[in-house]
Structures are given as C-alpha cells and as structure tokens.
Amino acid sequence: MGTPVNIIVGSHVWAEDPALTWIDGQVTKINGQQAEVQRSDGKKVVTNLSKLYPKDMEAPAGGVDDMTKLSYLHEPGVLQNLKSRYELNEIYTYTGNILIAINPFQKLPHLYNPHMMQQYKGAPFGELSPHVFAVADVAYRAMVNERKSNSILVSGESGAGKTETTKMLMQYLAFLGGRAATEGRTVEQQVLESNPVLEAFGNAKTVRNNNSSRFGKFVEIQFDKQGRISGAAIRTYLLERSRVCQISDPERNYHCFYLLCAAPKEEIDKYKLENPKSFHYLNQSKCFELVGTSDAQEYLATRRAMDIVGISKTEQEAIFRVVAAILHLGNIDFGKGKEIDSSVPKDEKAKFHLKMAAELLMCDPVALEDALCKRVMITPEEVIKRSLDPLSAVISRDGLAKTIYSRLFDWLVNKINNSIGQDSNSNSLIGVLDIYGFECFKNNSFEQFCINFTNEKLQQHFNQHVFKMEQEEYTKEAIDWSYIEFVDNQDVLDLIEKKPGGIINLLDEACMFPKSTHETFSNKLYQTFKNNKRFVKPKLSRTDFTILHYAGEACNTELSFNAGCSLSKQTSNLMFNKFQVQYQSDQFLDKNKDYVVPEHQDLLGASKCSFVAGLFPPIPEETSKSSKFSSIGSRFKLQLQQLMETLNAMEPHYIRCVKPNNLLKPSVFENANIMQQLRCGGVLEAIRISCAGYPTRRPFFEFINRFGLLAPNVLDGNYDEKVACTKILEKKGLKGFQIGKTKVFLRAGQMAELDARRTEVLTTAAKTLQRRIRTHTARKLFMAVREAAINVQSFCRSRLACKFYETVKRQAAALKIQRNARRHHARTAYSTLRLSILVIQTGLRNMEACNKFRFRRQTKAATIIQARWRCHKASAFYRKLKRGTLIAQCKWRGRLAKRELRKLKMVSFSIFIDIGHVFIVIENL
Ligand SMILES: Nc1ncnc2c1ncn2[C@@H]1O[C@H](COP(=O)(O)OP(=O)(O)OP(=O)(O)O)[C@@H](O)[C@H]1O
C-alpha cells in the first residue's frame, strides 16, 4: 500500500525512464541517497533512492483484477498490472468500485455476447471478472432493491471507448429491464436504436477517433416498479457547431453528410447532390471515406434506426433535405456587388447552389440571398437595409448553416425523447453519462474551454463523492479518522464560473458590449486574474490565456490514515502532473453568442416546409423584447448545473476509459500516455482513498435489518441499535470497523463477508423451510397415492379373483368332461381290444393246436424216418464191419501168407497188397 519500504542492495525496483515511464531493475549498490540500478534492459543507472519503487516479485503474472489487491500500490505497480492484463486481452480492471476500461481497438465479441450477459445477471459484484456489465448490474440491483436512482459516469479522453462502453451499458440494461415487444418496437429497442441516429448526426472522424462523438450525452433510463424499462430521456450537451463549416485535414464533417452523398441514386438526384469532393463544407479535408465502413450501408442502417425510434418517412425526408440544403448552402460563394461593401453570389455555380438551398429549405431564393448578404438596421427614424461585404456574407452563410444544423440535431434529440416517451411515475432511474474528457490541442478554442469546464465539474463530482463525502461523513459520524488532503478543484471552477467575476461572466459582459474585441476581453482576463494561481498569461501571446486545470498542483502533504494505510509524499507528488491548457481567445466572443440573426429567423420561420419552419419557431414577444442576454457559455453552465443536481441525487458508479495508444491500434500499450490518463482521471487517488477508508457504511437500522439474523439472540435483549450493531459485528469476529453516530462503517471487503454469512443463514433457513414444506406436500401426496393404490389394488385383486374362480370352474368342468371322455374312449378301446385279443387268442390257440397236431404227425414220421435211417445206418455199419472184419481177417491172413510168401519172393506180396487196396476202396464206397 505505498508504504515507505527499505530498499537495500539486491532489491527489485522500478526506476523512472523517460521513454517507458517505468522500467524494472535490481539495486546493485547504495551510496547514501544514491542507488545504482541494473535495469532489465541491460543499462546501469544511478538514481535517487526516493525515485525508486519496490517491485512485487510475487505479483501474479496475469495481474490482479482489483488494483486495491496489489501488494505495492504505486504508479509502476498499477501500470504493470494494467499492462499484464491488457496483454491477455483483459481490458477491464477494478480499482475499488471504479472500473478501468482500456480500449482494445479490436472486436472482442466473446466479452459481450448474450451468454456473458446471462452470467453477470445478479452475480455479486467482484465475483466474476471485472466487466462493464458488472457495473451496470450493481447499478440496476441497487436501483431495484433500494429504490434509489443510480448513475454511471463514463469518462476518458477522445477515443478511449466511452461511447462503446455506454452502448454496452445500455444493451445490458435493456437485457435486464427489457419487456415483451408490443406494437412492433419496445422502449429499450428505441433507446438502443437512438445511438446510431445520434451518431450519424453528432459523430465525426477526428484525428483522435474515427467515430468521435462531438456532443456530450446523458441518457436517463426510467424503470417501473418491476424493474422494467418504462421510458427514457436523452440530454445532449454542446454539439460542436463549428465542424459544420470548418474541418481540418484529415478529419471529416459529421457522418450524415457523407451518408447522404452515398444514398441511393434517386435520392442523390432528388437533392442534386454529387461527390462529397464537390462540397466546400466537406472538401476542406482530403478525407472523405472511413476505412472499414461503407457510407451507403450506414445510410440505410440510419434510415432503419430512424424508423425504429419513431421518425416518420416524411420527417426523414425533411431531415435529409435539410442536410442537403446545408451542403448547397456551403457552396454559395460571394463576390463583390455593384455597391461598395456589398456582395452577390459569385457566379452561376453559386447561383445554382443558392437556388437549390432555397428549394430544399422551401423558401424564396431572393429572400435567402438577402438574408445572407444584407442586414436590416432599425433606427428610431427608419428601417435601413445594409449590405454585407463578401467576407461578412460568408460568415453569415456559415452562421446560418451552423444554426440550421444545431437546430436539426436538437430536433432529433427531442423527437427521440418524445417518441420513446417519458414515464413520469418512475422514481427509479439509471443515468448513463458519456461526455468528452479533458482536451488539450495545439489550438484550443471556446469548445475546448467548455469541454474542460465540464470535466472540472465532473471531477469535482468525483472528488466530492470519493473524497469530500468520505471526510464529511466521517466527521459527521465522529469516526476516528485523520483528514486526507486532496486536490480540490473548486478554485478552477471559481475561476471559470463564479458569478460575478468568472471567465464565463466576463465573456458574457464582453459579448454584450458592441465594441468588445477578443483583445479587450483578454486584457480584462489578465487584469482580473493576475493573482489567480490557476490563471497564467502566456509570455509570447497578447490574447491567449492558460488555465491550470485539475491535477495542476501536487498534494504535498504526508498522508496518513488511522486505518493502517499511509502514503509517502513522493507517491502523492507523482499522482498529479501539470495539466495546463492554453486557450486562443480570438473566437470566444463569436462562439459564445447564442443568437440567431433575425433575418435568418424570419426567412426560415416563413419556410413553406413545416419541418423547416418548426426548427425556427417564432420567438416569444417577451423574450425578444427583454434585454436579457443569452450566451452559449451561460446556457451551458446552467445545463451543467442541472446535470450536477441530477447526478448528486443519484448513487454514482464510475467507469474510466483509457486509450492505450494514439495509433488507434490493438496491443499497443503506451506507458506514459496511460499514466497521464490515470492521473487526470483521479484513478490513483481513488485507489488510495478506497483502500484506506471505509467504503461501506450502513445506518444502524438498515444494518440490523439486514444482518440482525446473523445474531438473533442479540436482538432479544434490550440493547439500543448501536450496541446491537457492535455485538453483531463482534460476534462475527470482524475487526477494523467503526461505529459512528448513526451508521456502521465497514472496511473494504467486510460487507461482502457479512453478506456471504447472511446468505449462508438465509440459505440454511430457506432449505429448512423448503424441506419441511416438501415433506408435508410429499406426505400428503403419498397418503393420497397410497389410499388410491390400495383401492386400485383391492379392485384389481377382486377382479383377478373372479377371473381366477371362473378359470378354475372352467378347468374343473373341462377335467370332468375330459375324464368322462377319456373313460368312454378307454372303455371303447378296452372292449375292442378285449374282443380283438379274444379273437387273436382263439386264433392263436387254434393255430397252436393245429401246430401241435401237425408236429405230432411230423414227429411220428421223423421217428419212423430216424428209425429207418438208424436201421439203415446200423445195417450199413454192420455190413461195413463185417466186411472190414473180413478184410482185416483177409489182411491178417494175407500178412501171414505174406510172411510165407515173402519168403517166397516179392511177387506174391504185391498181389496181396493190391488185393488189400481193393478192399479199402470198396470199404470207402
Ligand atoms: N470495448 C471495445 N471493444 C472493441 N472496440 C472498442 C471498444 N471500445 C472502443 N473501441 C474502439 O475504439 C473506438 C473509439 O471508441 P469510442 O468512440 O467509444 O471513443 P470515445 O471515448 O467515445 O471517443 P469520443 O470522446 O471521441 O467520442 C471505437 O470506434 C471502437 O473501434
């Protein structure tokens, strides 16, 4: 938290660098107050210790989403954090309740799709990544829950992304508070579609932004009791009138001129238009087209948006007719007339454009020429017509063009407001302010003066909210708190707007004096403010003046807070750089005069076109007669006062848009440029205050109402509210809070902690309730279902029993039938079988008997045969035996004989053997 830290040899530090603003390095040597630092780019530098800042080596690589979480809260830490996040396309970062939005200069559709909107809807602030939707959601919830109007103030320099951010805010609010479409278009649709219409007529390409809003805008969205959008009002501030007639290269005039020149052919023919290059109001710059945008398509889109916001076709036709007339008006050149110091349209071309302008404005061309080239002077004696020289005629022509355009723009705003409609019953509003940031160019005129005045006002509002209100509140509540010194810009505001004696007042006085010139006005300023610390007369100029705007002086006091946070003098010094703007006063008087030349008023008031005549309504008698001088400056001052009153009655939320580079390119992070924007936007100071103070406070009653449920027993006793609050906080173990006279003051994060616990208790209670109710309902349902089930079951069972009985009865009957049938069948079969068996038996027995009979006969025959055979065999055997015996006897006798014979030689023996053989053969036979 920016506490003075001992830097020793080896410490990692941030050192100043002219190009990079800050560069990291390591201390290598310390000699008294001088430290030698080895920078990360390889260079070695010697610097004063007081110019070094400690580097948090443990900081997350991707940065932290809330700067108040940084361990070391100082410029380089903040810058590094933003840079690390930007490199990861994390363009949003919180600093307490303030949202810093760095322009990505590239489309990041994933950040804004409907899914994202759904995620942020109702999500507690800080739970999700920082986002513009989160801020809108907080504002919306606060409005719905507390019935208090809220405002979202979007600021930043030109091109920082204010308008885009505002559009996202409006889209998200339309998402939250949208209603079903009736009659074709809804209020939120009309609110959203008012943007392209206003952008076409109020935006232009400048060197700093291709789509720069040249007016301030405060959109007040009204909600009904249900939180639905019920109406809206758009207030615009200070349209840059001079752009209509004067542009510098490479800027463009208002988009609508180029859109009309790219319209379909029939319209171009109708309005006798040509290429933008042929119109004086457009060709002062060589830039006619916007890269990546088609004017023809934009023209059609604008016409569509006009339809949606409720501008009729006839009105649209009249609007573009007037735009075309302005272009023709710009081409009327003047030459010298016949009389001295008189002027006439220079040539045929000029006459053609004069005729066209008159035709389109539906007025008399001669009257138009007169209104441009002559002035009527009313003297007590007579009415004199004075001619204007060519130069004055050109000024008159440009004056007319500017007046017509600014009236047209005011008409559009009014029309949109009327068409969207106002909800007079609505007490809940969300205001979104998109207004130009501080401007400082090479040449700064009345417009820059007014713009910077607005920013001073807004800065004061911011200061009041963040600083003054803190202190006042702490004092009022007798909180133990040391005073913070902060840069109050009341002195700059006094210099500009104080009455009498402020610059605006002196300018009005100068405008009222016919003989005043910018020199006399400047001299008056020098005299009046010679001792003013905020006013400087530049040495080399006799008419310029310089104002030291907010952040022009450093806060030189040691700042310390009892809440445990202290800032060193060096830190606070660094927070405020000089922001001085040198103004050229030469056109201040002309630009401040809020008056329409009567000739112009009469001419266009008498137009045959009701639309044009409506832009120039007759001036009420009293006003024209009254000598009360009206100036742009005072009117703007009044408008700002009203805006501040509105804002003061609302709960503010801040979005600081930052432009990362002047090249309008993605991924380029210019350190010095960004640091300057953070300083001027008071972001660093707000971080300091937010961390040090008590960002959350609640009246006792409200606190008890909200958190009483965290300690219900505390409320049972007879404590007064203050004691009850203390007891609740002590019971929850919170430290560092303070109890004021009527309010509880909580440190950053404590409210979230209490809310988390409250949510816990409520969730538990809700769960118990839900459980009980669910049990009761479920039981009731169960009983009913059970009874019904029993009834159904008994019915079913009786039906089943009946059916079963029926079946059983049928089965029994079937069985009986089957039995009888089977018996019958069996009986019949048995009888048949028995009969058959008897037959078969009889047959068989018969057969057997027959067989037996036959067998006996066969046996007898066989016996006879056998007997005969055996007789035969025995007789054969007997015969054989008898013969064998005879043979054996013969053989024996032969052998004997043989032996006898052998002795008688061999012949008789062989005869004997042969005889034996013959016997054997015979025997075998
Ligand atoms: N969130 C974003 N996402 C993508 N592009 C963006 C975003 N914000 C801004 N831009 C780009 O930056 C350009 C300038 O933004 P924008 O017109 O909102 O700036 P501004 O602060 O309103 O400027 P001025 O004060 O001049 O009107 C836009 O045209 C768009 O291209």
UniProtKB/TrEMBL annotation:
Sorted alphabetically, the Gene Ontology cellular component annotations on this record are:
cytoplasm; membrane; myosin complex
Q: Where is the Myosin motor domain?
A: 62-759
List residues binding ATP: G156, E157, S158, G159, A160, G161, K162, T163
Query: What is a GO molecular function of this protein?
Result: calmodulin binding
Q: Any keyword Manganese?
A: no
Q: Which CDD domains match?
A: IQCD, MYSc_Myo11
Q: What is this protein called?
A: Uncharacterized protein
The record lists the organism as: Buddleja alternifolia
